[in-house]
């Protein structure tokens, strides 16, 4: 397939707030493991605003965007049926020109120690799309390095039945963009929280550490077990930041709580913007509320503090998900949690000292879980949720939609301004519109 000599891109120029739509040379294969992808749809993410606002310093302009889905239009020499025999990741043997794909926001080799462990977000060869080191997907074409370890085919190779294939055909292109970052990240935050040892006593109605050692009956019999009260068994959670990732975290929490058959969980969702609080409440209502007769409330910061105090008698929440990536949000999470509480932070923090001191963490026995989602590893699990909740993730511009609008790439500068000021929700770019 011959590619055009030039294509349209969104570029950010230093020091900040300078978005331009330009015509530049179309990317080409530079390495045998590369793929060139024709962009179908690309996203504008809250993380893009860090560089846009000048918080992430950069010396040279770059093509923006780390969320995209598209079609493979060129492959390097590494892609052949014999690649599997060489021990390469399976996609090197199965990826073909014409395949629809979605990419995580970082490249990953799927061959190093961290990738083998499932920690693909910290791959030894990891590069961030939409940065000075790797051009992003707010464009008509993008070069994907290590594509056999990075990309995910839609539908996956293991989808064989006609029923499954039909289900995949009904996935909207717009919702696929959510797979690049926000849905796996929301799921990652919810999973880290609900799987944490300090949360298990409430989930399993057994005190610590018996909740961890269910197979060791001898030790459990000898433990000084005091029966938990109904109050002890109530799980109280806070979600701080109700942008798209926060909403994905809430949907993921509700799904996992349903699977765990959890009872009477209480969730307070906190954000400064009323529009975001309203959308979160409508999404939870559409899903059917918190499983097991639980409670869900949205709140401002001060309202959130009062709700937590009333719900828990001053104990605090069992855990908080912090998605803002700002010290104020982290301080709020610390203030809200009880002793032995858990803070899961997936917000992109900048190069500043976090506002937590060792004594405070020690005195509260705080568990602090921080950092980037390994999106490529989370793909299969996030895709299950994407398929199940197309009513939330597949719509555009509706009351419960995560995606607010799809616009031409020519509207990039205006869209960045509006998104930065909180005047619109998540924006997607159609580079061919």
UniProtKB/TrEMBL annotation:
<keyword id="KW-0862">Zinc</keyword>
<keyword id="KW-0479">Metal-binding</keyword>
<dbReference type="InterPro" id="IPR011032">
    <property type="entry name" value="GroES-like_sf"/>
</dbReference>
<feature type="domain" description="Alcohol dehydrogenase-like C-terminal">
    <location>
        <begin position="266"/>
        <end position="383"/>
    </location>
</feature>
<dbReference type="InterPro" id="IPR036291">
    <property type="entry name" value="NAD(P)-bd_dom_sf"/>
</dbReference>
<feature type="domain" description="Alcohol dehydrogenase-like N-terminal">
    <location>
        <begin position="32"/>
        <end position="155"/>
    </location>
</feature>
<dbReference type="GO" id="GO:0046872">
    <property type="term" value="F:metal ion binding"/>
</dbReference>
<dbReference type="Pfam" id="PF08240">
    <property type="entry name" value="ADH_N"/>
</dbReference>
<dbReference type="InterPro" id="IPR013149">
    <property type="entry name" value="ADH-like_C"/>
</dbReference>
<dbReference type="Pfam" id="PF00107">
    <property type="entry name" value="ADH_zinc_N"/>
</dbReference>
<protein>
    <recommendedName>
        <fullName>Alcohol dehydrogenase</fullName>
    </recommendedName>
</protein>
<dbReference type="InterPro" id="IPR013154">
    <property type="entry name" value="ADH-like_N"/>
</dbReference>
């Amino acid at each position: 397939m011959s590619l055009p000599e030039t294509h349209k891109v969104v570029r950010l120029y230093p020091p900040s707030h300078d978005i331009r739509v330009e015509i530049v040379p179309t990317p080409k294969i530079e390495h045998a493991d590369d793929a060139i992808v024709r962009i179908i749809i690309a996203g504008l993410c809250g993380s893009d605003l860090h560089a846009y606002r000048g918080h992430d310093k950069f010396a040279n302009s770059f093509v923006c965007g780390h969320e995209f889905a598209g079609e493979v239009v060129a492959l390097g020499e590494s892609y052949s049926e014999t690649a599997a025999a060489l021990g390469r990741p399976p996609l090197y043997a199965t990826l073909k020109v014409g395949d629809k794909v979605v990419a995580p926001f970082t490249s990953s080799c799927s061959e190093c120690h961290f990738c083998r462990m499932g920690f693909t977000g910290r791959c030894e060869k990891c590069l961030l799309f939409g940065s000075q080191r790797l051009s992003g997907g707010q464009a008509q074409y993008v070069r994907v390095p290590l594509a056999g370890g990075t990309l995910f085919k839609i539908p996956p190779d293991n989808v064989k039945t006609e029923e499954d294939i039909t289900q995949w055909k009904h996935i909207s292109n717009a919702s696929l963009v959510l797979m690049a970052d926000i849905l796996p990240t929301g799921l990652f935050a919810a999973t880290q929280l609900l799987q944490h040892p300090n949360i298990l006593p409430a989930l399993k109605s057994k005190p610590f550490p018996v909740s961890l050692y269910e197979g060791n009956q001898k030790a459990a019999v000898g433990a000084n077990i005091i029966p938990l009260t109904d109050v002890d068994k109530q799980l109280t959670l806070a979600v701080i930041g109700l942008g798209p990732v926060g909403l994905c975290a809430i949907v993921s929490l509700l799904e996992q709580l349903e699977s765990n058959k959890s009872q009477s969980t209480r969730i307070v969702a906190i954000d400064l913007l009323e529009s975001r609080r309203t959308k979160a409440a409508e999404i939870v209502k559409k899903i059917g509320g918190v499983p097991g007769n639980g409670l869900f409330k949205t709140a401002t910061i001060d309202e959130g503090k009062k709700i937590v105090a009333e719900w828990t008698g001053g104990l605090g929440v069992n855990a908080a998900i912090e998605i803002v990536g700002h010290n104020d949000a982290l301080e709020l999470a610390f203030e809200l949690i009880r002793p032995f509480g858990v803070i899961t932070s997936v917000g992109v923090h900048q190069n500043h000292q976090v506002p937590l001191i060792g004594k405070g963490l020690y005195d509260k026995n705080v568990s602090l879980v921080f950092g980037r989602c390994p999106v490529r590893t989370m793909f299969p699990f996030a895709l299950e949720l994407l398929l199940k909740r197309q009513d939330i993730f597949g719509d555009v511009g509706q009351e419960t939609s995560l995606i607010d609008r799809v616009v031409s790439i020519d509207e990039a500068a205006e869209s960045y301004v509006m998104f930065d000021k909180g005047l619109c929700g998540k924006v997607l770019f159609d580079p061919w519109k």
